[in-house]
TrEMBL record:
Domain VOC residues, every copy: 7-133, 154-272
Cytoplasm keyword on record: no
Protein name (Swiss-Prot/TrEMBL): Ring-cleaving dioxygenase
CDD domains to which the protein is assigned, alphabetical: PcpA_C_like
A Pfam match: Glyoxalase
Source species: Halocatena salina
Amino acid sequence: MAPTTRGLHHVTAIAGDPQENAEFYVETLGLRFIKKTVNHDDTYTYHFYFGDGEGTPGTNITFFPWGDRGRSGQFGAGQTKTTAYSVPSGSLDYWIDRLEAHGVDVTEPTDRFGETVIEFEDPDGITLSLVATDAPTAHPWEASPVPERHQLRGLNSVTLAVNEIEPTADVLTTGLGYEFETEEDGRHRYRATDSGSGSTVDLLETDRARGRSGIGTVHHVAYKAQDTTEQERWREHLADQNLRVTEIIDRTYFQSIYFREPGGVLFEIATTEPGFTVDQTDDELGADLALPEWLEHEREEIESHLPSFETPSRI
């Protein structure tokens, strides 16, 4: 029997200035700064994680802030168009007022598949949306500048832009176990068998050329796997679908495999364990630079190359 994902694990994007990035996601959106580490494949670049009070899988958005040395990305086919978070029903007026007070332009509320949605951009131009739902929050963050009753309640969905719907849809359904739900205004909705928060992927067809990765674009979308045993089943299953899948890679806080679907979007499947307290206590999360054991001997050199950054006061 083929494995089926329980939905979104995290979304990883590319930012510019690390300070501006962290201040927006903590001070404006009210997410907790869960982890300050480095990109394992580019150790002179930070890797930031933001999430709910415990960094629960399915609530996290992560960033590689490239700083001044990074090139700007170009949105196009094969990329994530929008990353959506759930907020409590009745909270959108609060969020419109809050975002506008922070100088963020917000769209008028619109109806999408019977849900009310607003959209806006982060400081680097990454499109975000808030969807009013009744989804529960896993772990509220007591120190958030956003009152608990209005806090973001985890990833709701991602919208992927592709030149052709069918090849990507086939990976979602045959590959990842999603089911086609409905179509509205050219938007094709797919839902994981676990229909909770973060279970939805939307596909939009675009005539744009392939996008260019860089500041202001999403790098990859990650889906949940329970453990490495399930990941091995995923590797075999996806290989049977003629997809090129990496070996399991240790990302300290989870184990990962990666593959690129035919439409160009980079997908990851990540385990839900061991989690962010594997190297820091809950009280320490986000406070200091966390490095995997195999990079500890390079700490001094790595820190000397990282850009200036002041950890948010709310951690």
